[in-house]
UniProtKB/TrEMBL annotation:
Top-level lineage group: Bacteria
Gene3D superfamilies in the record: lambda repressor-like DNA-binding domains
Record lineage: Bacteria, Thermotogati, Deinococcota, Deinococci, Deinococcales
Name of this protein: Helix-turn-helix domain-containing protein
Transmembrane segments: none
Pfam families: HTH_3
Domain HTH cro/C1-type: 9-63
GO molecular function, one term: DNA binding
Span list, region Disordered: 68-100
Amino acid sequence: MADQKKKSLSEWRELKGMTVQAMADAVGITRGRMGDYLQGRTEPSVTRAQQFAELLGITVDQVAWVPKPKTSRAVPPKKGQGEQRIQGGAAPQEDAEGSS
């Protein structure tokens, strides 16, 4: 059986074709709480983990309780931060040259 490999809760949800809202409704929690579980911000209790496994037709052991890998995205530096780094690196060299 191909489903024996551990997958994150989010991967299992996608594989089984369930929406976040459908999973939340099935176990009696809010969509926001479900998102917390899917993103790994909160770990479910043993009872809740068993509910998820039963809902997905898998065992608790088949779930890797880790967040779905995030895609990296560039975060721009704060205003002026990039300029300070450039100027900060150049200033000591200028001072050293000027004092010779």
